Amino acid sequence: MRSIKHYRAFQIDPDRHVFGCINLACDDDEQAKREAAALVLIHRIELWRLDRRIAQFGLPPEDVRCTGA
Questions:
Q1: Which residue ranges of the chain lie beneath pLDDT 70?
Q2: Strand partners, 44
Q3: Cα separation of 24 and 9, whole Å?
């Protein structure tokens, strides 16, 4: 029998305040990490299970653009 675990992916604003929460039901921590990483669009994500932080996901670095001289 498969055991589903419940996780929360907290959305973090630039001032490091939580402004949203997405509930995830996953088989294990690795699946939860993949799903939480996919949520990173314009805000950081912290993944938690109960009172344990599983992972943090930051914003990808901005593209470095070169201007022609």
A1: 1, 60-69
A2: 12
A3: 7
Phi, psi of 18 (to 5 degrees): -75, 130
Strands of the sheet containing 44-49, edge to edge, are 18-26, 5-12, 44-49, 52-57
> Max Cα separation, the chain?
64
Query: What is the pTM for the complete model shown?
Result: 0.80
Query: Which residue type is seen at 53?
Result: R
The owner of tokens 């994500």 is: 45
Q: How far is the C-alpha of 8 from the C-alpha of 48, rounded, in Å?
A: 5
Per-position DSSP letters for 2-52, written without gaps between them: ---EEEEEEEE-TTS-EEEEEEEEESSHHHHHHHHHTT-SSSEEEEEETTE
Q: Return the amino acid letter for 45.
A: I
